[in-house]
Amino acid sequence: VDLEERLCELDLRSDSDVPDVPPPTDSTPEILKKALSGLSARWKNWWIRGILTLAMISGFFLIIYLGSFMLMLLVLSIQVKCYHEIITIGYRVYHSYDLPWFRSLSWYFLLCVNYFFYGETVADYFATFVQRREQLQFLIRYHRFISFALYLTGFCMFVLSLVKKHYRLQFYMFAWTHVTLLITVTQSHLVIQNLFEGMIWFLVPISSVICNDITAYIFGFFFGRTPLIKLSPKKTWEGFIGGFFSTVVFGFIFSYFLAQHQYFVCPVEYNSETNRFVTECEPSELFQMKKYSVPPLLQAVLGWETVNMYPFQMHSFALSTFASLIGPFGGFFASGFKRAFKIKDFADTIPGHGGIMDRFDCQYLMATFVHVYITSFIRGPNPSKLLKQLLILQPEQQLSVYKTLKSHLVEKGILQPSLRG
C-alpha cells in the first residue's frame, strides 16, 4: 500500500492520528517582545492582544471614514485571506503540495464563485450603470450561464487531474475547497448585502461581535473560574455572561449614536452620474425618534413613565443577543476544527491573535443571521430597486407595464378614468 494512502486511512480512523501541522511561527515584533520581557506569559499575552486590538479598531474606524467602497474592499480582502488560511491547512494536513493542478484549481474555484456572487450584486444594485455599457449588458444577461461554464471548466480540469494512488487525497481536497468556499465566499457576500441596506446594518453586528469578544476575554481574564466548554478550555461562564450584558448595553448605545446620522442609516446606492456610492435619503421610521411607554415593572426602578428612543435600538437588542449568545459558537466550531487537526491558530498573521480567520470565525454566523433578520422582519417592497429594473426593459415593455399599472390604479379608484398620461 502506498505510504500516502496509508496515512489517509489512518486519518479517517482516529482524531489522535491526524498528522501534525507545523505550528505558526511567533510574529510578535521584536520591540514589543523586549518591552514586555519582564512580564509573565499570561500578562504578556494580555498586553500584546490589547495593543494589537486597539490598532485594529483604529484601522477599522479609518476605513469607515473612507466610505462604503473601502469597506467592501476590506470584506473582500478578509475573505481572500481567510480562504488562503483554511486551504493552506488542508495542504499541510494531507501533505497535498504535490497534487497536480490542485493549488491552481483551488484559487480558480475562488475566482469562479466570486464572479458569480459579485456579478449578481452588480446586476441587482447597478442596473442603471450596466444599461449604459453595451459590453456589460452581454455579461449581465448571460451571467449565470457564464458562471456555470466557468465552474464546469474547473470541474473538468479536476477530473482530468486525477492521478492513480492519489484519488482519495484529491477528493479530500476537492471537498475541502468547496466547504471553504461555502464558509468564506457566501458569507462575505451576505456581509456586503447587509452593507447595501445601510452601513448601520454592517457596523452594529460586526461591532457587537468585536465587543463581545473583547469583554468576554476581559471578564474571563479577571473573574473566570468556571469552564464553559471543553472545546475552548480558556472560555469561562463568567466571561460568557459578562460579555453578554456588556454587548447588549454597547449595542443599544452604539445604535443610538449611529441612528442620528444619514451616513450610517441610508441604503448604500451607486450614483452613475457621479460614479460614486452615495448615502443620502429621508431616514425611514426605524431611524426616527419615537416615544415609548416604560413597562410598569421598570417604572418603579427607572422612575420614568415614557422614554424616547429609535425603533432600531430594539432591533439592536436582537442583534446584540445573537452576537453574544450564538455568535461564540462560531468560535467554538473553529476551536473544534483546530483541535481536530492539532493546530493552535489558523495562521500567525496577527501577533497574539493568530490568523485572520481566528478573529472572524464568529462574524460569518453573524452575517447570515443579519441577512435573514433583514429579509424576515425589516425589508419591504423597494420602489427604487423596482424602478431600476423597469428602466432596463425595452420601450414597448415599459409602455405595457405602464398601461397595466394605470388600469389597475383606475380600478382601485386611485386614478380617474379620464386622466390622460
UniProtKB/TrEMBL annotation:
Its main location: membrane. Keywords: Lipid biosynthesis, Lipid metabolism, Membrane, Nucleotidyltransferase, Phospholipid biosynthesis, Phospholipid metabolism, Transferase, Transmembrane, Transmembrane helix. It catalyses: 1-octadecanoyl-2-(5Z,8Z,11Z,14Z-eicosatetraenoyl)-sn-glycero-3-phosphate + CTP + H(+) = 1-octadecanoyl-2-(5Z,8Z,11Z,14Z-eicosatetraenoyl)-sn-glycero-3-cytidine-5'-diphosphate + diphosphate; a 1,2-diacyl-sn-glycero-3-phosphate + CTP + H(+) = a CDP-1,2-diacyl-sn-glycerol + diphosphate; 1,2-di-(5Z,8Z,11Z,14Z)-eicosatetraenoyl-sn-glycero-3-phosphate + CTP + H(+) = 1,2-di-(5Z,8Z,11Z,14Z-eicosatetraenoyl)-sn-glycero-3-cytidine-5'-diphosphate + diphosphate; 1,2-di-(9Z-octadecenoyl)-sn-glycero-3-phosphate + CTP + H(+) = 1,2-di-(9Z-octadecenoyl)-sn-glycero-3-cytidine-5'-diphosphate + diphosphate. GO terms for molecular function: phosphatidate cytidylyltransferase activity. GO terms for cellular component: endoplasmic reticulum membrane. It is an enzyme of class 2 (transferase). It is a multi-pass membrane protein. Its EC number is 2.7.7.41. The chain crosses the membrane at residues 46-78, 99-118, 138-160, 172-192, 198-224, 236-259, 312-334. It is found in: Membrane. GO terms for biological process: CDP-diacylglycerol biosynthetic process. Pathway: Lipid metabolism; Phospholipid metabolism; CDP-diacylglycerol biosynthesis; CDP-diacylglycerol from sn-glycerol 3-phosphate: step 3/3. This is Phosphatidate cytidylyltransferase. It comes from Formicarius rufipectus. The lineage of its organism: Eukaryota, Metazoa, Chordata, Craniata, Vertebrata. The gene is Cds1.
